[in-house]
Amino acid sequence: MKSLRNRWFYGALAVLGMLPCTPAIHAQLSDTSARVPVKMTVTANVDSQKRAPVINLQDILVKSGNEQLTINEWVPAREDRAGLELFILIDDAADWRLGSQLDVVRSFIKDQPASTLTGVGYMSNAGVQILQDLTSDHVLAANAIRLPIGIVGPFGSPYLSVVDLMKRWPASENRHEVVMITDGIDRRGGNRGMFRGYWLNPDADAASAMAQKTGTNIHSIYTPGNGRMYRGFWPATNGQTNLARLSDATGGMSFYLGLRSAVSFEPYFKDLQRSLNNQYLLSISMTPEKKARLQRVDISTEVAGVDFASHDAVWVPAAKR
């Protein structure tokens, strides 16, 4: 009889112990049902001497903090999913010597596949002058390339310029990529680049946030600016540092060779094209919060020799009430 009473007692305790967990279980189920799909472009980089391996969905792991995320889609950006919208942005404050590289830029545009729409713009006065909107006519886009005028106006910030472009860029199912050719120096107002020391430009952070929000990958190529005062060690180094930060945070590539212009941009564009040819479209499920915000995401794989380049964070809309 005592044994029977004990069984009833401990059984009742077990039932009571489960009751506090019930709301948490319902909350978890509710969170799962409330999740929203978020898309991003991921580049699988491999050594230039090696053939890019095929990476399957089961080969990747996506996490937000300590939480492993559900992967809805992982497909190569090829064939019917190869759509790409690519803007070439040139800093109008660039030195006239950039002219020796412009034929390389034109060749890169002309060599784009039919699935790529290409546009050309010039950065000045915290905005972008679009000389050729996105077009499948690559010869037309290449012919829009001209020499920089060497003047950027009173608000010369390449970061605010690329933000201006992204704000005007209509959303689409295609990949969005930007190539910025600039020294990365902010020439606005009293900031004349004379500061000695490392300086993290807040406008570069603003451009990074906008790129993550709009799903834009930003690549950068360093070229010296016009004027001797912008070629000093600290201005040029800070320009390169902020460009590298922007590209790294947005899944792009950053190219520079010391504080001078490269002899040729051709190797840069070759590496860039290789990366564009080896991209994947990723869709993951994220849990929305009360307010829309950027949420950090980490992507990894155990496939040997592969290094992923992607956005540090993705934009998650607010939860529906």
Plain-language structure description:
This protein has 321 residues and is an alpha/beta fold. It is built from eight helices and 15 strands. A six-stranded mixed sheet has the order 7-6-5-8-9-10. Strands 4-11-1-14 form a four-stranded antiparallel sheet, with no helix packed on it. Strand 5, helix 3 and strand 6 (116-124) form a beta-alpha-beta unit. The radius of gyration is 24 Å and the shape is globular.
Per-chain topology:
Elements: H1 2-18, H2 21-34, E1 36-45, E2 60-64, E3 67-68, E4 71-76, E5 84-91, H3 102-110, E6 116-124, E7 127-135, H4 138-142, H5 158-168, E8 175-182, H6 202-214, E9 216-222, H7 233-249, E10 254-255, H8 266-276, E11 279-286, E12 293-296, E13 298-301, E14 307-309, E15 313-316
Parallel strand pairs: 5-6, 5-8, 8-9, 9-10
Antiparallel strand pairs: 1-11, 1-14, 2-3, 2-13, 4-11, 6-7, 12-15
